[in-house]
Amino acid sequence: MVSRIGTAGVALVFAAGLWLVAAPFALGYQRAGAGWTGATRTDVIAGALLAVAGFAGIFAVIAGRVSELYANARPAASLAARCTGRADGRNTGS
Amino acid sequence: MTRYLSGLCVAGLGLCGGGWLVVAAVAFGGLDGGDAASANLATGAGLIVTGCVTAVAWAMAWRRRMRADGVLGERFATVSRRQARRNRRELTRDVRRAARSAKQSAREARRRARRFPRLADGGHAESGLSGGGLGEPRGWIGGGRAGYAPHGPARAGQGQAGPSTTEVLVELRTLRALLTPLLEAAGGEPASPPLPQRRPGQERPGIPRQRGEQAERGEQGEQAERGERGERAERAVGGAAGQAGGPIAGEGDVPRLADSEETWW
């Protein structure tokens, strides 16, 4: 549950970055074809940074979770292989 | 670990970005800056809140994971002040009690060492006697305390009984049987035979040397004395050798041995 909240927070940061990049154009305080104002520049730069960081965070969270799943699955697989081998040996012996 | 760390990093970056947006809206655009300022302020505030929640969530998840892996120990249960005071008081009382009992036992050990210096010096082994010697009752040292039985196991509350007269006499008889042939071979004078039983009012017989001097007085007396002495010596040696299986020779020998003890020492 806590990890889900954290993942949602990282996704929110990514979404906030995207929103900051799109906000000047969406809200209309940056006219199309005109030079970028200070507010627009600040929003776009900050939004891009946050979006990149959010994306990297989401990627890292997903990658970490997958690697944990692999790490947990390795001993289980070896245990299952051992059990299967024993069962096969027992069947062959009998 | 990677995801916790990256989650915390992203949360930190979100906090920084939110803070920057708030500061930029206030510093550059002003509160009356229109849509841009309000959007920046709202986004910045939202980012700060999101960053805080995310950071707390990732920190909690990481701690939980570390506790599950055994890296972090279990938390101590929180104790109220009253309970803590009570625990402290009990601990102090226990320490005082332990110190008091240690002092008491040390005092007792000192007293015991003062009372029995041989035990403290280890002179017991040099005495050459088993137990506490002939005149010292065995097992009474320590008063039957548990774990303190230098002369064999003693019952709680009472010491072992001392050697009885019979045991002493048996030991004396054994010593006599062993030493008589040696004395005869060395000096030609046999060991003194047991003295006859005295009656009340009877004159005390002298020790063998005195009797030897008396024997020089006459030829006949000397011969008679020698014959009697040899006969007594033979009787004593034969009696000791023949009665080695039993605890004591007979009822009549006990007082005779007791009387002859003084000729030995």
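qc> The radius of gyration of chain A is 25 Å.
qc> done
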